[in-house]
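User: I'm putting together a small comparison set for a docking exercise, and I want a reference complex before I start. The sequence is below, and the ligand is zinc ion. Could you produce the 3D structure with the ligand included, as structure tokens?
Assistant: Of course. I'll restate your input first, then give the structure tokens for the complex.
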Amino acid sequence: MWRKVRREMRRKGWLRRQEVNVACRRVPSPIGHTSVSPMISSAILRRSWAAASDAEVTFALNDAGESLAAFSRVTADSGSLIQSWIEGRTVVEYEHYPPDDVVDVRSGSQFFYHAHRSGGNEHGHMHLFWHATVSGRRRYVAGLPRRWVRAAPTHLFAIALDDRGLPVSLFTVNRWVTDGYWFDASTIQSFVARFAVNDASGNADSCAWLNAFVRMYRPVIENLLLRRDRRLSRRKDLLASLDDRRLEQLSLLRLDWEADLRSLEGEAVRRRLAL
Ligand SMILES: [Zn+2]
């Protein structure tokens, strides 16, 4: 099924390497001067899939199919993932899209899109959060409009999108950028495993894309978080480093979604799994 979706998307030009302006007048992003890197699939994913069981590769295939189908729906309906959140508005630096974020009060997952960085082929990025208490759990209290208390949105990682809404990199940021409690890579990874946004009215397709995309990229996200912790571990004072304004982005991994999809397809063909 997903191979058909991918073929259809390429036919319509949604996966083609071309530049599309999404009306981003006030963001200092080099729209129209996008340099596109060659397609290289993630070595982390290739290694992970090569070592996985057939069942795990089948799960990854299902995630790939779900994310592609959702991406296809949202692009057909709104023009792009980005347009589904900005809805034709002019993108203003640091403003959130959609304006109230997308929050799933049941799972405690949250994300928003915004733009404030220039350089590379990034138009803007999604910040993903999971609401946790200082001990890394969440308390539920019946009857409150928000079902968790004493929790703060903990930043998991960010997904940079190009001006077509295609994911181009994953990165982590320092604590002062988003606040929230700070957890080590393995704890954040356990939040990532539970991350799911499902309650968002009007954003069902972008949520479906995101949930499946995050599941498919978990090995890369794990590596990204470990790189973040490794970088901080080289510094003498962790608490001071978490507030150090000179340290903003802590780790970054570029990605090529289409190349990764093709790589997964190759793994499935090698194993003679049904596509
Ligand atoms: Zn940001």
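The first helix runs from residue 2 to 11. The radius of gyration is 18 Å.
User: Thanks, that's exactly what I needed.
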